[in-house]
Amino acid sequence: ATMKSLRFISAEAFVSNAEFARKNLSSVAHNLFPLLFKASYLLEQGEVIHDLVENWPFVEFNMGKLLETTVDYQEDLSHRTCSVCLESCLTGLRDYVLNHPSPYVKRLKVVDLTGIKDVEVQFCECKKTMGRWARTQLLSKLCLELLVYLQQTQCNPGILEISIDVLIDLFVTERNYELVVQALLKKCSCPLKICCVAFRSDNLALQKFFYIIKLTDPSLLRKLEIVHNVRLEMEHLEILFNSIHFPLLMSLTLPARTFNVRRFTATDEWMLTNIGEKMGEMTQLTELSVSFSILTGRIQKLLSPLKTPLKMLDVSNCSLNHADLAYLANSFHANHLEVLDLSGHNIPDLYPSIFFKLLSHSSSVLRSLTLEDCNIQDTHVNMLILGLRPCQKLEEFKFLGNPLSSQALKQLFTFLCELPMLKNVEFPVPRDCYPIGITYPIDDASLCRFDHQKYESVAEELNLILLQANREDVKASTPLFGSYDAAVQETNNELGAYLIKSFKETLEKFTTSLNKMS
């Protein structure tokens, strides 16, 4: 268990009786509020959290800072997205605006909700989480309720002077689009001002995306993720970059099939150059994800205008060729890459030596490497170990979907124990657990058709290798359907419904054309 100071234990005792704590809050010294907040969060004392936020005495309320490791209690609670606690925080914020008799006590100017991290395993008692989508939804709803209330009642004129910036990572889909748009449109007249620091959109029509992104104030945006089921293609991206400036953008994720060089015309080449130049103007850009686009031979065109070296690059399944990898290995990005994903490329056959050059250039900073479905076989394991040996800062290595035997995995694990910072390994189901003659990459239908008992015993042996090397700190797993994505997890019903709908439409079209033929 994590050590708690005497102060923290006293704070827990104070907030554990909610009624008592709420009655006596007015006599508590202001400098104890942060301590009481973290204690209430740990114990999920929603009512106390509400009252602490409603009476917050400081200029800033920064969720991440309040919940991270503190002197009094080492444990970081910022990855607890507990529904009870978060809802209490947000309603407390609304009531902060409404319930004070005197305006001069109000000092709060900035509320920062961006430090909340969405993770797979929740440790809160209630086991109910409030993800990024739901936080977007609730904050928008509260802002609109606040406006309605202010319009209907003769309220204290002091309220109208309140202006609090609420920094948040918005997540918008078709289902919460209207609500968020209304809240952003009425931002000027609302005491709580939504300030969008990061924006993610899934499952949204293009014109809606273009409309809402302008409302978010793109000049403040640090992270933009356009992920699943937003039909953004290269010409739309060019329009986006030509019509909107993103001076602070640090991280950009584009949806699958944004680029497809196989269909390129001369105009497309020019367009790609223009997009590269626009990205070059984003002087803060250090993270780029363009997975599942076809970019053969064009990586240099896209990345060479960048003025700042990339720290994170995801070019998985982008059909890169030797020239692309050679550009990457020799570019100034190579020495700065902390996170690299080259999944879906046949590395051993196409460009082993240039890949190792890239690895050696980034070895002093590389923290996460993903090589899924790269056709890495038993004969390549020694070479892979040589390439990984200098990567002493590596914390995460994912290599699902490679045709490796259990013997090769054991050899690899024995080596992985030597990487001092390693925390997370995602390894494939061994080839010898599948029926003979299985072909890689394995299709979804055959993915689960392996000998589960044999897999379990191999997994046990691999964990034993870690244990014997005193590496209990390393988590090794085989997430068959890819790594956890909090955003997809939260909105999977909506995404699923969309996919079923589009599948049905495709079937109907197919049936119609069959009927025409007959």
From TrEMBL:
Keywords linked to the UniProt accession: Leucine-rich repeat, Repeat
UniProt cross-references to InterPro entries, sorted A to Z: LRR_dom_sf, LRRC14/PRAME
GO cellular component assignments: cytoplasm
Top-level taxon of the source organism: Eukaryota
PANTHER family in the record: LEUCINE-RICH REPEAT-CONTAINING PROTEIN 14B, SIMILAR TO PREFERENTIALLY EXPRESSED ANTIGEN IN MELANOMA-LIKE 3
Family classification: Belongs to the PRAME family. LRRC14 subfamily.
Protein name: Leucine-rich repeat-containing protein 14B
Biological source species: Chunga burmeisteri (Black-legged seriema)
Gene: Lrrc14b
